[in-house]
Write a structure and sequence with these properties.
Elements: E1 8-13, H1 21-34, E2 39-44, H2 46-49, H3 56-72, E3 81-84, H4 90-99, H5 104-108, H6 111-118, H7 125-139, E4 145-147, H8 153-170, E5 178-180, H9 210-218, H10 237-245, H11 248-260, H12 265-279, H13 281-292, H14 296-323
The structure holds adenosine monophosphate and tryptophan.
Adenosine monophosphate binds next to α1.
Length: 326
């Protein structure tokens, strides 16, 4: 008899601010596409957000809002399990167990910790230990595939390292998960051409209001080529963003007009704004519907928490038995 379990897909997103189109194309869109391919579990990483958010009301509100926005973008709660991180507190127990085998040097090499310190965040133990909690998030569901943006790749490698450490020490306890990174949208640029990130203030939000979104698109940084000059699409943030949303023909058309000269950057920006506004229109509509039903999101999260707990409890029994607890 073949024991063919569905592939388990897991990812998380921090509720530390509003979602931008870098989050959408880098992580949410691929995660939504994967929900049809196996058992998907997607959570709102509120424990993780505690490393940077100090306002309890803001954390609660943002967690709800990120869940609403994710559903509005196409996550289907009939197919995927959607839940809050903190509804599965067993992950913190697993993080402790993993931390007892985690080499200091492995965590000291984590680039996201170093980046966060460089951006002025306080060096807390939680921030340092973040990859261990993330490993627990992944391993506690026997996850096969983890769709994330490129910046999270090292965290998945650390997860695998920790799983191997446990397996070598206590016998086969964990499955080794794999990162799934979208090659086509490895890094979505922000309006200054750097990686789009809420902490750099260069973000275009998925559900920003029309006036603000237009303003942000119109302020995309370009070189100072005059209208007549040919413009290299490869160096253009406008073109890169447009390519994420437009059809093949539309992309080819913008490329031709860029290379030919005669069109100014502001016209390309207007075209990008129109495309962006149209692309997210069905999601804005869905979001209004979700928001109009007050209990909907809480019901979805409660159902998700129940399923996530079932899996986590089973895996934790296995872990506790393996390491000698109970
Ligand atoms: P963050 O908002 O940094 O917690 O990111 C949430 C998810 O979105 C992660 O999987 C990131 O890898 C992904 N992501 C964030 N910013 C970008 C970007 N500019 N390009 C591609 N993916 C991104
Ligand atoms: N660290 C991820 C981020 O900042 C969020 C996250 C937490 C996550 N736990 C996870 C992603 C587990 C995938 C799997 O974007």
């Amino acid at each position: 008899m073949t024991d063919k379990k569905p592939m388990r897909i897991l990812s998380g997103i921090q509720p530390s601010g509003v979602l931008h189109i870098g989050n959408y194309f880098g992580m949410m869109k691929p995660a939504i596409a994967l929900q049809a391919e196996g058992e998907a579990l997607y959570f709102i990483a509120d424990y993780h957000a505690l490393t940077s958010v100090r306002d309890p009301e803001a954390l609660r509100e943002n967690s709800r809002r990120v869940a609403v926005d994710f559903l509005a973008c196409g996550l289907d709660p009939e197919r995927a399990t959607v839940f809050r991180h903190s509804d599965v507190p067993q992950v913190t127990e697993l993080a402790w167990i993993l931390s007892t085998v985690a080499p200091m040097g492995l965590l000291e090499r984590a680039t996201s910790y170093k980046d966060k310190l460089a951006r002025g965040m306080a060096a807390t133990v939680g921030l340092f230990n973040y990859p261990v909690l993330m490993a627990a998030d992944i391993l506690i569901y026997d996850s096969d595939i983890v769709p994330v943006g490129k910046d999270q790749k090292q965290h998945i490698e650390i997860t695998r390292d920790l799983a191997v450490k446990i397996n070598e020490t206590f016998g086969h306890v964990f499955k080794l998960p794999e990162a799934r990174i979208q090659a086509a949208t490895e890094t979505v640029p922000g309006i200054d051409g750097q990686k789009m990130s809420k902490s750099y203030g260069n973000n275009i939000d998925i559900f920003g209001d029309e006036k603000d979104t237009r303003k942000r698109v119109m302020s995309i940084v370009t070189d100072s080529s005059p209208v007549d000059a040919p413009k290299d699409p490869a160096n253009s943030t406008i073109f890169k963003l447009y390519s994420l949303m437009a059809s093949k023909n539309e992309i080819a058309d913008m490329r031709d007009r860029s290379l030919k000269g005669g069109t100014g950057y502001s016209d390309f920006k207007k075209q990008l704004f129109e495309k962006l506004w149209e692309y997210f229109a069905p999601m804005r509509k869905r979001r209004e519907e979700i928001l109009s039903d007050k209990s909907y999101i809480e019901d979805v999260l409660a159902r998700g928490a129940k399923r996530a707990n079932e899996i986590a409890d089973q895996v934790m029994q296995r872990v506790r038995a393996a390491v000698g607890l109970r």
